[in-house]
Design brief:
Helix content: 25-40%
Strand order of the largest sheet: 3-4-2-1-5-12-11-6-7-10-8-9
Largest sheet: 12 strands, mixed
């Protein structure tokens, strides 16, 4: 792949009160980071300087006036920097969820998505954000994924994936109260979730992923003695998926399926609600996991951990999950660019 064929990856600094700016400084200081992408960092100059100061790093960048310039840059050895004006230093109280920080995050993400609509950006990788701050700052959806989907005009099925190395998980319901999780189950949603994660794994470079479907109830429902969701909803979904050519197995009790996946038997697990998969993934590798926004017309990734307000500004942030999120964005952005 020649340099002119590398995907344009937009990076953002995340919530100004958290560890995002430090993480991006650490990411862009990694050796060879520009080898697989034409990088553009979008953010407020003072915040970018703050992130470098916290990380005790100096990261050279090349100023650009618009996203449209990035793909045409003759020298892409340095990350591009697109300066914006979304938030002032006096508006930020470190380690707290604030409306100004949430509003700034939304403005930057929307600008990057606008660039993607114009084919100026092939993928987005954003540093951690805070949902409370975003809602205080104007987010009208339950999470950023639903904002992305509406902004990009998505009408089909979409969901978050959480990844850890070669293992990806999706979920049938996400940021809703646990008491509503059973009502959110349907054969159609399970089928859509399994197909989407299968296709997304292929787009990220896994040629023939195998997919496991988690049960909903303890012990997989014990043959209907501990709930009928497996019999009435999940098993029919598995049969439909197999008939359509998607290689799935299950349903498996959720407290054992991750052992099989950990040992390499499956590359993907479809879970039935948020914590069913999140607890396992974060226990296996909290500092390495990635969230992929699935079902959108462009790849959007982020580290699976949050803004870590408790260590913000202390120079302690671990870059591994951000680096993994960036790598996935590069792979999926390249696939989108060349599709």
């Amino acid at each position: 792949m020649s340099k002119q064929q590398t995907p344009v990856i937009a990076l953002t600094l995340g919530d100004a009160a958290g560890i995002g700016p430090e993480l991006i400084a650490r990411l862009l200081s990694q050796p060879g980071i520009t080898a697989s992408a034409n990088i553009v960092l979008v953010g407020d100059p003072w915040l970018w300087q703050d992130g470098q100061a916290i990380a005790k790093l100096t990261v050279p960048t090349q100023a650009v006036a618009s996203l449209a310039e990035v793909r045409k840059r003759p020298d892409q050895r340095l990350p591009a920097f697109l300066a914006v004006d979304t938030i002032r230093p006096e508006q930020v109280q470190r380690s707290q969820a604030q409306a100004a920080c949430g509003s700034a995050v939304l403005q930057v993400l929307d600008l990057c998505m606008d660039g993607a609509k114009r084919d100026e950006v092939d993928a987005i990788c954003f540093a951690p954000l805070n949902k409370q701050a975003m809602k205080l700052g104007g987010l009208k959806h339950e999470d950023e994924l639903h904002h992305f989907a509406e902004y990009l005009g998505v009408t089909g099925y979409f969901c978050e994936f959480n990844t850890l190395g070669d293992l990806w998980t999706s979920r049938v319901s996400s940021h809703i109260p646990l008491k509503d999780a059973a009502a959110a189950l349907s054969k159609e949603r399970i089928v859509d979730a399994a197909r989407l994660i299968y296709q997304s794994l292929q787009a990220s470079g896994t040629a023939s992923p195998t997919v496991a479907i988690a049960a909903f109830n303890p012990h997989g429902g014990d043959g209907g003695m501990c709930g009928r969701e497996e019999i009435d909803i999940i098993e029919p979904a598995v049969r439909e998926l197999r008939a359509s050519g998607v290689p799935v197995d299950g349903p498996f009790p959720a407290d054992t399926i991750f052992l099989k996946a950990r040992d390499g038997q499956y590359q993907a697990i479809v879970t039935m609600y948020h914590d069913q998969g999140q607890i396992a993934i974060k226990l296996m590798g909290f500092s390495k996991g990635v969230t992929v926004q699935g079902g959108l017309p462009l790849p959007i990734t982020t580290p699976a951990h949050g803004t870590a307000y408790d260590i913000a500004g202390q120079g302690l942030a671990d870059v591994n999950a951000t680096l993994n999120a960036f790598r996935i964005a590069c792979r999926m952005g390249a696939a989108r660019l060349h599709s």
